[in-house]
Amino acid sequence: MNTNSSFILLINLISLIFISDLFAQEFTFAAMSDSRGKDRGSNEIVLSALVTHLVANQKEVKFLMFMGDMVDGSDDYPDTTLAELIYWKKIMSPVYNNSNMVWPYIYPVIGNHEARTPNDEDNFRSMFNNVPINGPDDEKGLTYSFDYMNVHFVCVDTDRWYYGDPDDPSDDRRDWHYVKHLDWLENDLQKANERNVRYTFVFGHDVPFPIGGHLHDGFPNLGRRFNPPVDSLKQWHIDQRDKFWQILVDNKVTAYICGHEHIYGRQLVDGVYQIVAGGAGAPLYEFNPTFNEHPDSKKPYEEMSYNDAVPYYKELNYNYGPGKNGQRSEDFFGLRAFHYAIFNVKEDRIEIKIYGAFPKEKISYEMNGEIELIDKFEIKD
Ligand SMILES: [Fe+2]
Asked: Is residue 1 part of a domain?
């Protein structure tokens, strides 16, 4: 072999390594949330249909992110919640037995329905003990992060059980609707950026910019029948939401993906996508009410009328009034459907496809028709 041939061989080898490196960064993951229902805690028929469709049709999927409220749970009996989670895992067995996917198959996020008694968090940890243990001390196994190829994934706990004074049993209460450890999150995202990860996704159960059904709580947590002015606790929740979102913006997070609201919706807020994918079987909600539909009346599954919602819209800087969408961003797009989401990570973009089925008329927890592609969009830098 002469020098020229050796040089060409070397160049080819380098190109091959470079190209295979590029391809190595491309992969697919799935996300879904909110499957609670009446079949031992889950909506077994809808969840099974979605999971069966996913396993049969999305063979390139490497793992599934599940953003909480898998089951109904119980306010009084932690063993009931635990038994429901065991049954939920049985329903999810097509995913756990899928040889196309990689261990641990499902990365879970805890939801408010799984954090209803002092024992629930430890039960949740025991049910999903294959996640990275790298979160804040009091949220280990619930808040965590990992890299897959050149992409960073963060799961944050948004709904905890609060242990005020361990010696005072009356000092136990729910501690919902916010991300507690913002310093941990900021540090984790900064380190990921220092590693030059290509994209970062953050997953949580609760919703920073509610789109339907939880306008009264979610991260802003204004409460039912809100009337201004905000008190100091409500202002604290709004500030905590703003700080959380600013951390995502500052660290160039691609999307925050959540559930809590049983519906599908996407919108860009200050350069970061909020994607609500809460349609895995829990009763479907309606979107935030709009002026044009019915200013004073409510749809069957709607939380409040348009006029009831106006004080919330004003406080949260939503688009409201004639012709407005009743959402935080004008680019909002959503569908009232059962669904799962597919994220196809490419070097220069993320392709997102939503597969779902619409509900039967007047029944918010049964599918009508086949599961099909219902939305498709791309995220580019
Ligand atoms: Fe929830």
From this structure: no
Q: What is the pLDDT of residue 203?
A: 98
Residue 174 neighbours by CB distance under 10 Å: 14
Going by their DSSP bridges, the two strands 199-204 and 151-156 should be labelled as: parallel
CA of 311 to the centre of ligand 1 (A): 23
Q: What distance in angstroms lies between residue 261's CA and the mean position of ligand 1's atoms?
A: 7
Q: pLDDT per residue over 136-184, tens digit each? A: 999 999 999 999 999 999 999 999 988 777 677 677 778 999 999 999 9
pLDDT value of residue 4 = 61
What is the domain range of residue 307?
28-379
Ligand 1 centre from 113 Cα, in Å? Answer: 6
**What pLDDT does residue 20 have?**
46
Q: Is the pLDDT of residue 295 over 60?
A: yes
Q: How far is the CA of 259 from the centre of ligand 1 (A)?
A: 7
Between the CA of 220 and the centroid of ligand 1 the distance, in Å, is 14
Q: How far, in Å, from the CA of 33 to the mean position of ligand 1?
A: 9
Q: Count how many domains the chain has.
A: 1
SS3 112: helix
Residue 213 Cα, ligand 1 centroid: separation in angstroms? Answer: 10
Which residues does 299 contact at the CB level (< 8 Å), separation at least 6?
A: 286, 289, 293
CATH of the domain at 214: 3.60.21.10
Residues with CB under 5 A from ligand 1 (ion): 69, 111-112, 260
Any domain includes 201: yes
Coil, helix or strand at residue 152 = strand
Q: How large a percentage of the chain has pLDDT more than 70?
A: 93
Look at the chain and count its residues.
381
